[in-house]
Fold this sequence. Notes:
Elements (H helix, E strand, L loop, with lengths): L12 H6 L3 H18 L4 H15 L4 H16 L1
Amino acid sequence: MNEVVKVEIPVDAEAAEVLKDAAARERLGKLLSRIALLHQGKDPLIELLGRTAAKARESGLTDGEIDAELAAYNAERRS
């Protein structure tokens, strides 16, 4: 999140009780921000992976080498 702004969103009474807690508001605000980005078609994880792959290519790695590294990592985690 670059800039935090306050918005008013209607919620049911039970959710309002949870949101009285400042820590809960902060956690849920971050979650809602991520959900809003997904709704716009902007998945932060996919964007991060894209930037990481681009940097790997800039360093000279091919898509095949990147895929092989990911496959090896996944295989290692499964065993």
